[in-house]
Amino acid sequence: MSDKLAEIIAHKRKEIEPLLLRADKLRYAALERNEFRSLSSSIDLGSEKLGLIAEVKKSSPSAGVIAKEFDPVLQAKKYAAAGASAISVLTDEKFFGGRLEYLVKIRQEVEIPILRKDFIINEAQIYEASVAGADAILLIVAALDQDELKRLLDCAYTYQLEVLMEVHDLKELERALDTDVKIIGVNNRNLKTFEVDLKNTEKISEEVPEDIFFVSESGIKTPEDAALVAGWGADAVLVGESLMRTDDVNLAVKEIMESVPD
């Protein structure tokens, strides 16, 4: 685990201590939920278009503040109106300027699947995600040991949430494939140096089975970048910073989703 990720996880363990006291109440509430939207179905656009998980993000450790005038609900509505496949909502507050309440509000305003993007290390966070209205969660292989990874994946499936399982290298991919994973995301950002290399998608894609949905994350700024990773086998891309910065969300979304090599 990189130093920055270790710092984030250490903080997250302290942050969720109050949540653990409400775990049973949240678990029962999660059991009552019966309406879900399928992330995998939404990003499965075949060869005609590239799936797009458009991210609502205020800031990040690498980029600093991305959106000074931040309206998460308006941004999500723009993504949905432009035809994005799904929406990723950062809910980590300390490092990414997110809040769970953003996801709750966005859920009420859009009809496409919502991914809760956070550092999930305990089942209580999964119950919380479900109650808030998430349809899927992120699990980061580098942040979890193998038993934790399998346990949290099983928990998510039990509560009808899909999982985007994030890997950074081939060793992590091997661990991911040792689970019942259905959607794998490759993070093109090196967690130690924070440098981005889109070729990480090419390297990982060669080892991802065809029956698993494959998502390329981080560093995709232009339609050309999207076309590149699509050519390497990505079924979808997760894009945040460039979409948060653009003046024309509608055009940017359409250009990314139409960036499929002939």
Task: Supply the key terms.
10 strands, TIM Barrel, two-stranded antiparallel sheet, 44% helix, 8-stranded parallel barrel, 262 residues, 14 helices, alpha/beta
Q: How are the SSEs ordered, and which strands pair?
A:
Blueprint: H1 3-15, H2 17-20, H3 23-32, H4 39-43, E1 51-56, E2 59-60, E3 64-65, H5 72-82, E4 86-90, H6 93-96, H7 100-107, E5 114-117, H8 123-132, E6 136-140, H9 146-158, E7 162-167, H10 170-176, E8 183-187, H11 199-205, E9 213-217, H12 223-231, E10 236-239, H13 241-245, H14 249-257
Helix pairs in contact: 3-8, 5-7, 5-14, 12-14
The CATH homologous superfamily is called Aldolase class I
Mean pLDDT: 93
The helicity comes to: 40-55%
CATH level 1 class label: Alpha Beta
Unreliable sequence segments: none
Number of strands: 10
Q: Please state the oligomeric state of the protein chains shown.
A: single chain
The whole-angstrom Rg is: 17 Å
How many structural domains?
Answer: 1
Number of helices: 14
Distance between the termini: 39 Å
Explain this structure to me?
With 262 residues, the protein is α/β, with parallel strands linked by helices. The protein has a single domain, classed as Aldolase class I (TIM Barrel, Alpha-Beta Barrel). It has helices at 3-15, 17-20, 23-32, 39-43, 72-82, 93-96, 100-107, 123-132, 146-158, 170-176, 199-205, 223-231, 241-245, 249-257, and strands at residues 51-56, 59-60, 64-65, 86-90, 114-117, 136-140, 162-167, 183-187, 213-217, 236-239. Strands 1-4-5-6-7-8-9-10 form an 8-stranded parallel barrel, surrounded by 8 helices. Helix 3 packs across helix 8, helix 5 (72-82) packs across helix 14 (249-257) and helix 12 runs parallel beside helix 14. The chain is globular and about 50 Å long.
